[in-house]
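Tokens as discussed.
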């Protein structure tokens, strides 16, 4: 009996640090460390249409993705073009830290993962957009820099560009590599204002002409 109470006492910090998950349907999903999540895509074979793409059905059968689109959907862009996408709900943490939103109490936020293509959709997916809608006064842990998560996953990273965005934000571009895996590129963008702060990541399968939109490569 004494051993039981000792074990229970040792578990209390773990229990106290556990948060419910929002939305509720995501609570049974495995939580991926960001670096490990990115590594999953570094292992994906080159898409049928070429090295700058992956196939639309990548991880379609992964039980830790809740797919919210049927097939491939499309929408109009700000410049009257068309973006093609698939959207899934995934749980992600960055070096063990998870974004939180205040519901009845603090809850872990699930992330949005979107497969994107601006070219002919038959070529496949050009990039993977990763964000969590964390921004306002009722959220926490919205800005989560990725470097330590890269290191945890043994991903080699090199900063290749940086540019200021608006008054209080920036975008940083990285080249990511790992032995025997495909090289990829990640843009990490942050923004802040009177309403709060936010960040998102976009993983590219070939190097964009302007990974940071503006700013010179290092």
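Sequence:
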């Amino acid at each position: 009996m004494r051993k039981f109470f000792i074990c229970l006492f040792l578990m209390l910090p773990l229990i106290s640090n556990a948060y419910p998950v929002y939305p509720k349907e995501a609570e049974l999903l495995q939580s991926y460390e960001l670096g490990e999540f990115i590594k999953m895509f570094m292992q994906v074979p080159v898409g049928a249409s070429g090295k700058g793409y992956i196939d639309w059905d990548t991880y379609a059968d992964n039980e830790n993705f809740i797919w919210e689109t049927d097939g491939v959907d499309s929408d109009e862009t700000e410049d009257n073009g068309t973006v093609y996408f698939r959207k899934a709900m995934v749980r992600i943490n960055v070096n063990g830290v998870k974004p939180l939103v205040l519901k009845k109490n603090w809850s872990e936020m699930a992330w949005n993962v979107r497969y994107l293509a601006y070219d002919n959709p038959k070529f496949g997916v050009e990039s993977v957009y990763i964000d969590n809608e964390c921004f306002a006064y009722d959220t926490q842990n919205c800005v989560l820099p990725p470097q330590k998560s890269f290191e945890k996953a043994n991903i080699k990273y090199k900063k290749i560009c940086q540019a200021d965005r608006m008054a209080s934000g920036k975008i940083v571009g990285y080249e990511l590599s790992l032995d025997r895996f495909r090289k990829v590129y990640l843009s990490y963008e942050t923004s802040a204002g009177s309403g709060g702060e936010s960040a998102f990541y976009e993983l590219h399968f070939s190097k964009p002409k302007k990974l940071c939109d503006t700013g010179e490569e290092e």
